[in-house]
């Protein structure tokens, strides 16, 4: 029951993953950490779980989080300095969680998309329908040299679970699937949990991410790392988090 009371505890799963691929820890920029003190607290929690590297991915979404990706590196430098000053040993990279909307199209035209780790880009679909011209846009991105990661595909269960052809198209286009850890324990509802397990069963998932926004997600991860679906996936050897 230690997870209920915030007990510090390293988890083998986090250590095996090594790198978290998706988080919202740049302070005050989206719906994640509100200030630097919260950022430091969450980074310390991730270190205590066993992570060695965090890839921070601020939202970039039209009308909600219209952030300028060109500012993210300087913001990350501030985080790195604050974390180092606190004596926390953590590696960082910064990317973005780019929602494929009209803002995305404008940023793409300006070559102002934020990549990480030698050209990877984290893409988010709308939650109720596929992006307009999805196939063409993915093809164009790959022609431009981007390596594509789809954020939490299981959360698009309302339309993607019944569209196996699109899933196959995405995998044929070598789009990596990043699943949220909490999806496998029902945090986003039974429909998402069922679809998450389908994706795992069919070997569609290459990456696990925290999608970390706040302390509640830390407590949920402590619990999730003890649950069999998460243990089985991490121990399967099929995930590539530690390559980042």
Give me some keywords for this one.
single chain; 244 residues; alpha/beta; three-stranded parallel β-sheet; 9 strands; 39% helix
Provide a descriptive summary of the structure in words:
The protein is α/β, with parallel strands linked by helices. 39% of the residues lie in helices and 14% in strands. The chain has ten helices and nine strands. The strands form two sheets. Strands 3-5-6-7-8-9 form a six-stranded parallel sheet, covered by helices on one side. Helix 5 links the parallel strand 6 and strand 7. Residues 1-7 have low confidence and may be disordered.
> Portion of residues in helices?
25-40%
Number of strands: 9
How many helices? The count is 10
Average predicted confidence as pLDDT:
95
Molecular shape = globular
N-end to C-end Cα span: 32 Å
Question: Could you list the spans in which at least 5 consecutive residues all have pLDDT below 50?
Answer: 1-7
The spatial strand order of the largest sheet comes to 3-5-6-7-8-9
- Structural class call reads alpha/beta
Order of SSEs, N→C?
A: HEHEEHEEHEHEHHEHEHH
Radius of gyration: 17 Å
Largest sheet: 6 strands, parallel
The portion of residues forming beta strands comes to 5-15%
